[in-house]
Amino acid sequence: MAQPPPGQGGKGQGGSGPGQRTSTSGATPAARTNTGTGLPRTATSGSTPAARTATGEQAVRRSPTLSSLPNVRAGVNAFELGSIPDSKSYKKKIDRSAFDGEEEHTQVDALLGARRVVTPPPEEESTSVGKVFDGTTPPKELTSRDLWKAINAPLQSREGRRTADLYKQVLNQFAAGHNPRYEPEEPSRLRAHIFVWDVTRAMNAELPHFVGARELSLAQTCDWLRQEAPMRGWRRADAEGAAAAANAGKPVVAVPRDSSVRAIAMVRPGELGPDGRPRFAAAGLKRGNDLSTQEALGVFAVEYFFHD
What we know:
This protein is α+β, with helices and mostly antiparallel strands. Among the domains are: 66-111, no CATH class; 140-307, endopeptidase domain like (from Nostoc punctiforme) (endopeptidase fold (from Nostoc punctiforme), Alpha-Beta Complex), CATH 3.90.1720.10. Helices cover 24% and strands 10% of the residues. It has eight helices and eight strands. Strand 4 (252-256) and strand 5 form a beta hairpin. It starts with 72 loop residues before the first helix and ends with a strand. The model is unreliable at 7-40, 42-51, 72-85 and 90-128 (pLDDT under 50).
């Protein structure tokens, strides 16, 4: 009888020779790749195998809208991977981070199940004057002599809601020539800057009386107007431009061109005076609601600043 060639099964099909074929019964099948090579499939370097559902479809791992937002992408990944203990902790961290825009805030809040409450814009304020002030009798709440206390005027004006009549009545309510708040403690300690502080606060374009914890003197207020105000919405103008701004209801402040002269006043809306210059309300060497340039500031050469 012929002998089987070496290496081809000396003990039958159940043998253990080198060329033996193993049975699939009770054995683990070899892992196969898509190419059917029988070798275990390995992940591509630097990537994670895609998660699959019971139906074999690949699960969506992140919101496509949020994933396009660079500042929240890391937070989205953290939520999906369960590395953050709770949404409150995450929101605290997100609120401290820098966002590119309102859209990112809105989408993060949606992710957290929170809705931001948007404050509706205030109702339109009337630019008409309900009460007329005569310029000589100030309301009681505007007469405090505590100069470190800001006062809240009953009549106010703000950007976008300006009229000449409203501006005139804002000035009149402080009654610069009769209000005890503006009476100087001594001739060398005038309160012209306190009057301007009060009026510009009521016009929502404040020239400050305090910068940090430092209280400004009259001289320092004049310096602040020249140096800081142009960076805070105040613009320079000539006499003609200042009168036009005041007649548009905008607050206009004037100081002497000579910085060694310490004086400050508010330009009034209305016609120019006999000298061809605007009229003023001031609480300087002379206090009043309708003063000339010389009376209000003591000089003729003046710088003007107005605010929208």
